[in-house]
Design goal:
With 150 residues, this protein is mainly beta. Strands 1, 2, 3, 4, 5, 6, 7, 8, 9, 10 and 11 form an 11-stranded antiparallel sheet that branches. A hairpin with an 8-residue loop joins strand 2 and strand 3. The protein is globular.
Length: 150
């Protein structure tokens, strides 16, 4: 048995499944999640997920507003190259990844905002509307953030 990890699985239909898991493996099509206060697990189908957020706390801080974009971060750091993901529901996720490859269904990334509740995120790239790296990631983030401000 592996160590229990806190996760929030954001599904394509808009639902968010929160709980603990000990069997998340990126190459597997599913994993089991134990919701809070439940001894019964539920099966999470990764093909129906947009991303799985590995979090510090399941409740998070509803009063905190995550910083958007790259916060003037370097083009590369210990967590990899800049990457921006736009999901079909228009959510923008910016961070860094060592593991992104267009040939893979998904990849891990670390958020650009170091103080967010998210430790790392597994993105189902096959379910994203757009994924960009490096300078293209910066341009995507700027374009989307500017359109939000308008």
């Amino acid at each position: 048995m592996g160590e229990l990890t806190l996760v929030a699985a954001h599904m394509l239909d808009g639902t968010v499944l929160k709980g603990k898991t000990q069997d998340f493996v990126p190459q597997s099509p599913c994993f089991y999640l134990f919701p809070e206060n439940s001894a019964t697990s539920i099966k999470v189908d990764l093909r129906k997920a947009k991303a799985v957020f590995f979090v510090r706390d399941l409740a998070g801080d509803p009063m905190r507003a995550d910083l958007k974009g790259f916060i003037a971060g370097p083009k590369q750091n210990a967590h990899g190259r800049k990457i921006a993901v736009r999901f079909t529901d228009t959510e923008l996720l910016c961070g860094y990844s060592l593991a992104y490859s267009p040939a893979r269904e998904g990849f891990f990334m670390c958020p650009a905002d170091p103080d967010t509740n998210n430790v790392r995120v597994y993105v189902m790239a096959s379910n994203a509307a757009e994924v960009r790296e490096g300078a293209e990631a910066e341009a995507l983030a700027r374009r989307l953030l500017n359109s939000e401000a308008a």
